[in-house]
Design brief:
A two-stranded antiparallel ribbon has the order 1-2. It has about 110 residues and is an alpha+beta fold. The chain is elongated and about 55 Å long. The protein has one domain: Orthogonal Bundle (Arc Repressor Mutant, subunit A), CATH 1.10.10.10.
Length: about 110
C-alpha cells in the first residue's frame, strides 16, 4: 500500500463502492456507509473522497442514463480499479497482520 496514502474514510468509501457494485453512486454510498457504520456523512464529503480516489487511480467512474426521476440528471457510478482492489487487499492484510501481533490481553480489556 506504500504510496497510496489511503486514509480510513477513503478505505470505507472504497469498501462501500465494492459492496454496491455495480450500482455505486454518491447518494447510495452515503446511505450504505450510514447503514454499515452508523456514521453520518455529508454528500459533499463522499464526493470529495470519490474524486480523490479516482485521481489516485483507485476508482473509475461512468455516467448512467438520464432519468425523469432525477430531472434528466445522470448518475455517476463508480467501480474499483484493479489497482484499487490490490490496495484494498494490501490494507486488509496489513491490518490483519498487525491485529495478530497484539497480545490478546490488550484487546480483552474492552
Amino acid at each position: 500500500m506504500k504510496g497510496t496514502n489511503l486514509g480510513e474514510f477513503e478505505e470505507l468509501v472504497m469498501l462501500t463502492v465494492g459492496i454496491l457494485h455495480p450500482n455505486a453512486y454518491g447518494v447510495g454510498i452515503k446511505q450504505e456507509i450510514l447503514n454499515q457504520t452508523k456514521r453520518k456523512v455529508t454528500l459533499s464529503t463522499i464526493h470529495s473522497a470519490l474524486h480523490r480516489l479516482e485521481n489516485k487511480g483507485l476508482l473509475n467512474s461512468h455516467f448512467g442514463e438520464s432519468t425523469g426521476i432525477r430531472g434528466g440528471k445522470r448518475k455517476k457510478y463508480f467501480t474499483i480499479t484493479a489497482y484499487g482492489a490490490r490496495c484494498l487487499r494490501e490494507a486488509q492484510e496489513i491490518r490483519q497482520s498487525m491485529y495478530q501481533t497484539i497480545p490478546s490481553f490488550v484487546l480483552d480489556q474492552a
